[in-house]
Specification:
It is a single chain. This protein has 79 residues and is α+β, with helices and mostly antiparallel strands. Helix content is 58%, strand content 15%. It has a two-stranded antiparallel sheet with strand order 1-2. A hairpin with a 2-residue loop joins strand 1 and strand 2. Helix 1 packs across helix 2 and helix 1 packs across helix 3. The chain is globular and about 45 Å long. It starts with 8 loop residues before the first strand and ends with a helix. 9% of the residues are buried.
Length: 79
């Protein structure tokens, strides 16, 4: 697991706002998997998440979407 100071960061401009997000590798991989599954680019996915997060911090939304994807995968395998 990365130390907080070593977590990979993404600098991005969404809706004219500059933002930076630092997450653990597993969440960056989940973002990549989700965008590949949907057939959209990773920045396009970030824009979609930003538009739909309803006053939640964007980092939280990215983490939550990765966790939901992991949960669905686990349920699909066990069920």
């Amino acid at each position: 697991m990365n130390k907080p100071s070593e977590m990979p960061a993404l600098s991005i401009t969404l809706n004219g706002r500059k933002s930076s997000i630092s997450l653990e590798d597993a969440f960056w991989q989940a973002r990549k998997d989700i965008s590949n599954t949907r057939g959209i680019g990773r920045r396009e996915l970030m824009d979609l998440l930003d538009r739909t997060h309803e006053h939640q911090p964007l980092t939280f939304v990215v983490v939550a979407s990765g966790m939901r994807r992991a949960w669905r995968r686990r349920c699909d395998r066990s069920g």
